[in-house]
TrEMBL record:
Organism: Mytilus galloprovincialis
MF annotations from Gene Ontology: catalytic activity
InterPro entries according to UniProt: Endo/exonu/phosph_ase_sf, Endo/exonuclease/phosphatase
Organism lineage string: Eukaryota, Metazoa, Spiralia, Lophotrochozoa, Mollusca
Pfam families hit by this protein: Exo_endo_phos
Name listed for the protein in its UniProt record: Endonuclease/exonuclease/phosphatase domain-containing protein
Annotated ranges, domain Endonuclease/exonuclease/phosphatase: 7-227
Amino acid sequence: MSSTICLSKFLKDTDCDICVISEHKLKERSLHYLSTIERGYNCISKADALPIGYNAYHGKGGIAILYKTSLQFSVNEISDINSSRIAGIELKNQSYGSLFIFGAYLPSDDSIENYKSELNILDNLYTYYSVYGNCIIAGDLNASCLDKDRPMSNNYKSKELLKFVSRHHLLYAGGEIQIKGPNYSYITKQITKQTMLDYILCNESMYRKLRYYEILDEGEISSTSDHLPVVAEFVIDSNPHRVMNSCDKLPAWHKVSDAQINEYKKLLNDPVDMLIDKMRSFSYVDIDAINDEFVNILHTAADIAIPKCGFNPHTKPYWNADVKRAHDNERSKRRCWVLEGRPRGMHFDSYRMYKRAKSEFRRVQQVANEQYIQSCYDDLNETAECDVRLFWKQIKRFKGRSSKVYPEIVYENKVCNTPESVANCFAEYFHDIYTNQRMRIILTMTLNVLSRVHTMKLLKHVVLKVNTYLVG
């Protein structure tokens, strides 16, 4: 039980969101045990098929993915994987889209055909799902992408793995990804044979979200595995779009003067030059960070130099120039009538002219409203024939809202703007629970469970691999 307790403590200490376990060595009937390792985690797992006559109390191989039940994503298992060595989940929410995470434990024997067969399955999965979102592959791949490991690892398997990585432009530790900690993940008694077999592979887009990648040194966790835990942290913005409220003031470019435009340009010159110099001074530039900084410069300059205007929620959609002229005329005639003491009767000129102007305004307003409604119907008829999704989007837009709900809540410097995040915000407030919003992915390879008391539930070796690689 020592390694299971260690894994449970590790999950708590790191507050990881996703934990991939390879080579758990559990039999099919004992897979439910993985869901009991730590509270607040669900598990998707697979066990290797055992040969006839296999009588050991533990199984062989196996792959599992643990994930937090409190994630701000819906989590679905990818069920169309025809392999007991590969498991996958899809994380999805409305604002971010989909993120696919695959855990893999590739064959460790000397059969090149078996290795190529499993790698081809992984290749097909990545090719298909990368069209719909970013993909991360984590696990014990039993081959090395590094030149230094070639003499100690299977050269043929390493070549196949490198082809796969190059074909999909994936980045790996020891290559483009800088490692904190040892430059190996598999340890042996002979120091010269220590190699990198455990990887978290990602594309360029996910690499920009990578905050750190660490291989924990031997002894940092009390694990008896011969694979070191690998920790990677990706910061994923669950709402990458800026939320605009009805009370926001926006630049009124139609009211801007030449003098204000010149002032706006002057305010941009120095900060933009400094930003360009900053980009040139670094060998690697985080595009997302530079983009955020540039947007902030534009907003700051516009706030100072450009006049603002707000959205008027009471504006009628049919209100056009003719309606405005008729309304101005009606208001003008009413003022004249009020100044004369509000006399009543058609024999008073001010009263008669006011009533005529009011009647004309109502006539023009009704005509404009009917024209607007007819144009809406025409748009619906057109979209119903060519674009069903746009049709229902317009239906939703035309429908009136029964209530006004403030679109976001700010609590302890966190912005909550989806129903799920708002609900969690209230839960944190009333129950004083803090949940770290950063996404951490833990890879755990080989869970070494040493207790022989729970022989039907545990495996002999449970190795934990952190944040996309648990013990290996």
